[in-house]
Amino acid sequence: MRANRLSIAKTTSAICFYSAKAKDVMIVDDIITTGTSFGEAIDVCQRSGARVHFGIALCDARSAEVV
After folding, report:
1. Among the listed residues 17, 26, 16, the one whose alpha carbon sits nearest the alpha carbon of residue 51
2. Residue 4: its pLDDT value, please?
3. What is the pTM of this model?
4. What stretches of the chain show up as alpha helix (H) in DSSP?
5. Residue 61 covered by a domain
6. pLDDT of residue 41
7. DSSP label of 18
């Protein structure tokens, strides 16, 4: 299952359609399973010129612990 999610993540891409130069951003994601999309979002924002200060996810599927 994890391998399938990773292969799907490798075939998708993200594009920022505007300049984020000198913008301060925070990345928000609903769930982290592999962390690939979270990392891609950070890369896209930084390539667009944004400063990513931190990111947060509402749920971490890598952990079985209930908080």
Report:
1. 26
2. 59
3. 0.63
4. 2-11, 36-47
5. yes
6. 87
7. S
C-alpha 20/C-alpha 45 separation (Å) is 7
- The answer to whether residue 3 scores a pLDDT higher than 60 is yes
Structural domain contains residue 16: no
Maximum CA extent, the chain: 39
N-term to C-term CA, the chain = 24
Mind listing the pLDDT tens digit for each residue in 16-50? 666 677 789 898 888 888 888 888 888 888 888 88
Specify the DSSP element, H or E, that contains 52: strand 51-60
Q: Which residues contact 16 (CB under 8 A, 6 or more apart)?
A: 44, 45, 47, 48
Token pair, residue 33, equals 């399973």
Work out how many domains the chain is built from and give that number: 1
Question: Measured between alpha carbons, how far is 57 from 35 in angstroms, rounded to an integer?
Answer: 10
Domain membership of residue 48 (yes or no) is yes
